[in-house]
Amino acid sequence: MDIKIAKVDTNRLWISNKDAAAYLGVSKDWLKDRRNEGKLHYSVVGNTIFYIKKEIDNLIMAGAVSGRQHFQKAT
Predict the structure, then answer these.
(1) Residue 2 included in any domain
(2) Over the stretch 22-44, which tens digit does the pLDDT of each residue have?
(3) What domain range is 49 assigned to?
(4) What backbone phi and psi angles, to 5 degrees, belong to 51?
(5) Prediction pTM value
(6) What are the CB-based long-range contacts (under 8 Å, 24+) for 15-19?
(7) What is the Cα–Cα distance from 30 to 33, expressed in whole angstroms?
(8) What's residue 4's pLDDT?
(9) CB distance 23 to 69 below 8 Å
(10) Structural domains in the chain (count)
(11) Element (H, E) at 71
């Protein structure tokens, strides 16, 4: 029996507009402003906007948002 391992390109995983706003702790309008400024790539499927998750994570790393809710130590 052969075991197949799928390679996943984590740079191409997508996150919805709603989930991105919750993940970053920002409003949907904040995300819209980043899209309009050309600072955030996106794709639209039906009525849903999606972002590449790696780019969302990069916003945290670049200090564009605090991301503190994701990096606090558990108590």
Answers:
(1) no
(2) 888 889 999 999 999 998 999 99
(3) 10-67
(4) -125, 155
(5) 0.69
(6) 15/50, 15/51, 15/52, 15/53, 15/56, 16/48, 16/49, 16/50, 17/42, 17/48, 17/49, 17/50, 17/51
(7) 5
(8) 67
(9) no
(10) 1
(11) helix 68-71
